[in-house]
Write a structure and sequence with these properties.
CATH architecture: Up-down Bundle
Largest sheet: none
Transmembrane segments: 21-43, 49-68, 89-108, 128-146, 158-177, 197-219, 240-263, 283-304, 339-358, 370-392, 404-425, 431-449
Mean pLDDT: 85
Low-confidence stretches: none
Distance between the termini: 20 Å
Order of helices and strands: HHHHHHHHHHHHHHHHHH
Organism: Dechloromonas hankyongensis
Strand content: under 5%
CATH class: Mainly Alpha
CATH topology: Amino acid/polyamine transporter I
Main location: membrane
Number of domains: 1
Membrane topology: Multi-pass membrane protein
Shape: globular
Keywords: Cell membrane, Membrane, Transmembrane, Transmembrane helix
Helix content: over 70%
Number of helices: 18
Radius of gyration: 21 Å
Number of strands: 0
Length: 460
Amino acid sequence: MSAQGGLAKGVLGTFESAIMGIAGTAPAFSVAVTTAAIVAAVGVLSVGSIFYCGLIMFGIMLAFFHLSKISPHAGAAYAWVGHVFGRKWGFFAGWGLLVASIFFMVSATIPAATSTLVLLAPDRVESTVWVTGTAAVWLTLVTIVVTKGIKHASYTQLMLTGVETAVVITLIAGAFVEYGGNPAHTPSLIWFSPFSFTPQLFATGALTAIFFYWGWDVTMNLSEETRAGATGQPHPASQGAFWAMVNLILFFIIMMIVVLIVLSDDEIAQANTNVLYAIANKLFPAPWSYLAVLSTILSTIGTIETQILQFSRSMYAMARDEMLHPRYSRIHPKWQTPWVATFVIWFLGVLLLFSSSYMPTVKSILESSILAIGFQICFYMSLAGFACAWHYRDKLTGGLYGAVSYVLWPLLAAAFMVFIALYSIPTFDPITTLLGIGGILVGFIPLLLGNWRQTGGARG
């Protein structure tokens, strides 16, 4: 246990939690970094993938929403899955998040770096050395802000999200005005039709689409630092997650339609991680088009911040319960942040960044990390969905709302995530398999070490 006290209490409210949830998915970043991959995989059915995965993720959000009633906990999925299914399952739910967050430091900081280089040194954008070096600088700066306290992180997030939202709304409005009557891809109901998908196509698109939504659950990891709600009302962290998810589903569907009506398939592929800039470049003259690059940078900084928060709070909670070494539960006496756990993700993120610089292209780094993260998201979130359905199984006989909200929707969402993950494994290349599956299996090492410590092996 930490000898330096706990996390800061009562800092965030419902509004701040919702902003954190939205920023956690990084709307502009998600569109910029993931669009080329999902369009390459499923084409115009990207819109349907985003919609159906939104429904799946909403079911997982309901699971977190209801499980949080057990108790607000910085460990979130780790704590609640452990409460329902036992400590080992809880450990792996937490471990899945930790590993995904570490790989995310690569897939998130690289778009921030490429966008920065577009503005400052365009000729260096395809250089993996320059990109990874710039990414490491961004990761370091954001880590400093997060370590200084949750208030600093919250204020920074409000500012970043506000500017990002203004730029993206401008892009959406401009796209419909300029290309609504002459789209690059003609809108069709086929984009949404479930009958357009084969199981393989759905799984491939869904694994990437899930990456769009990941990050909203940071609100739950910050629940110990959120003000208590009124008696009988949902916790503000849960309310923040709900409103974040509603906004995100609508935004991502609209934004994917915008991408398809403005850009051709070739333009999307060539844009790679700068899809928003490609859209802005067709809508507005320079230098106004560079505002899209700015929004990507701000969005990416925001999601790096929330992922560091999510990782550090999860690691802190697991160490506090001695599932990981207690050193990771140390709290800074002044800033009230888990500074050791924060340092861990910074160090591992920088290490992975410079290791990935040996891969041949920036694109290959991103594709491998995105698919691996998608697999790990399916793993830990499906555990939460199953835990909610099992914990509240008595609700099946308590009326339609209780049966659907507490049991059926979370259960179906969890089952879909398992299907997506298993169906996608045969499509992985060796690097993705190593990152996605190997990253989870490595968890047996700290789990066994934790058991050894708790049984007195370390003292013996």
